[in-house]
Amino acid sequence: MLLYHDQIKKRSAVNIDIEDRAYQFGDGVYEVIRIYNKKPFYLDAHLDRFVRSSTAIKIELPYPIQQLKQLLLQLIEQAQLETGNIYLQISRGVAPRSHAFPGTIQPVVIAYPQNTNRPISALNEGVCAITTPDIRWLRCDIKSLNLLGACLAKQEAIEREAQEAILIRDGYVTEGSSTNIFVVHNQTLYTHPANHLILNGVTRSIVLNLADKLCISTKESAISEDALESAEECFMTSTNMEICPIVQINDKKVGTGRPGIMAKQLQEAFEHLIGK
Ligand code: PLP
């Protein structure tokens, strides 16, 4: 089952046009929304960001956001999705190929469910990461379909037998290829400020809130590549990876080489949220 425009249909009943601008220009935005126990997790925060991203690239939703919310809830129900995610995308629409925006066209909305389990072993054991230059554009705050910079970085990580690439711009950590990065230095939790150089993750905001509740001192301030090397702890956050410890960066252990205390504390608090 999937959502196409404002209807829930079988996948086989949907045809995507070869002149859809998502396909030719990456001209659209998207969201990935986690489903736990048949319920969407922080759906409103994802839909707010979806509206912010589409407004930033001048795509107007074809119907009210409340209607989209109802359709997504229907899709989750009909798909009987227990644990997984919903991929949601809007493209500017279909028009003969030309860079400038066409006149009035109908945006194309699609959403479909995916069955994916929680990454339990990565959460418990941690993962390895590499660092690589951040070659992406200067509007990383928009959740754009243009993901080539992220794909190249992730592929480099995989080829170097790591799971994530930590991106470095002008000597500072921005974020991961598909995650936000947190670093513990002198008992303070650092993450890049939510500006045009990163995607302001829904999980990132949850973690900053949980840290406050746990009286962990936080700073939204970019950390240098040098400081990253001497980090006491490092972890990445995203809808799919939750709060995942990074235990090795570029062949060097982070701290003891085991998931850190702050990551564990935050993971525990996060589990409570999921259970609610
Ligand atoms: N940063 C980037 C570049 C991402 O692609 C993602 C998720 O896809 C995130 C951060 C994490 O965002 P969220 O926690 O909303 O999934």
What are its keywords?
276 residues; D-amino Acid Aminotransferase, Chain A, domain 1; single chain; aminotransferase; nine-stranded mixed beta sheet; EC 2.6.1.21; Class-IV_PLP-Dep_Aminotrnsfr; pyridoxal phosphate; six-stranded antiparallel beta sheet; D-amino Acid Aminotransferase, Chain A, domain 2; binds pyridoxal-5'-phosphate; Aminotrans_IV; alpha+beta; globular
Bound compounds: pyridoxal-5'-phosphate
Shape: globular
Q: How many β strands by DSSP?
A: 15
Q: State the share of residues found in helices, binned by percent.
A: 25-40%
Query: What's the Cα radius of gyration?
Result: 19 Å
In CATH terms, what is the architecture of the largest domain?
A: Alpha-Beta Barrel
Poorly predicted tracts of residues:
none
- What fraction strand? 25-35%
CATH H-tier superfamily of the largest domain: D-amino Acid Aminotransferase, subunit A, domain 2
Order of helices and strands: EEHEEHHEEHEHEEEEHEHEEEH
Secondary-structure class: alpha+beta
Overall mean pLDDT score? 97
Number of helices, counting only DSSP H or I runs of 4 residues or more: 8
Catalytic activity: D-alanine + 2-oxoglutarate = D-glutamate + pyruvate
EC number: 2.6.1.21
Pfam family, one: Aminotran_4
Keywords: Aminotransferase, Pyridoxal phosphate, Transferase
